[in-house]
């Protein structure tokens, strides 16, 4: 996997959820079509009359997620940018998504405004495999923010974490280590370590 | 449709997206299984090690959305409540969702904490019909908050709104009126009314 493949997966799923935050700090969530994917950029549109439009023009932070039929989940956190030349973009979007004409026939399409997400962090999470598999990518050049847990040098090698891990993704060593690609981030190792040698990442 | 039927639809979709807000006010979004539905209550669980657990125990406001294969979308905004007697609830959840044992075998299930959503507003939005169809419900006794647009008595009956509506859901009258169940909330009527007779609701 890589960032572009993750975006293509969102386009294949097509109807994915977009979460935004309103000016009172409340979360909102709805299914939106992924309209176009180009070179690590995701395009979508929404109508100027919708609460969603107000929310993302006031606060561009957005969290997108989708799941395919193989139980592979994509999560994308980034900032939306409203596009210049909206009519050109809306025409391109309708050309690539002709079913949009059923909802917005004729010139009514121009009530829609186009947006792009070309930054932020993507997580790929495969729940269809055992052990589970996860990978993180950036759409831009920033460093990937890590989550989950790390075993420190305080580890005494007692195997408690290894015994408790539901995904068997902890290996012995000095110190023991978590196979991060297979970790659920459930916290069982963290809660059960008798010497508190396990720390949160990020 | 009613509130309970909407929750049952989320259970049928099963993997639906849950949006939360972290302590910096940023949105997060991921797919979560709807585990149980009972008398206008939705149950789910998450592991104590996950960022999601921290987010919803610090800020219980959540926005859930899912889409079925008929392009019917459910949106639910409410507050989560953490449940007492977590082991009893987790055992009930695993009994109803035996596939959970593949991810959390044996006693590792008890790293999960059970939550319920028994309040808030639900929106049903059917994009598979023409014109589209939408309805709102409450899970508790509060009044449904209305969105979209209303035509006021300032209407001069010029038909501009009716001509512009992509869903043909504006009817003549004194004043003209919007068939709210079929409205996209796109804002074309609002933007084009020559006498500004159309107001936002809610």
Automatic annotation (TrEMBL), chains A, B:
Q: Which residues form the 4Fe-4S ferredoxin-type domain?
A: 146-171, 174-202
Source species, domain of life: Bacteria
Keyword annotations: 4Fe-4S, Electron transport, Iron, Iron-sulfur, Metal-binding, Transport
Q: Which residues form the signal peptide?
A: none
Q: What is this protein called?
A: 4Fe-4S binding protein
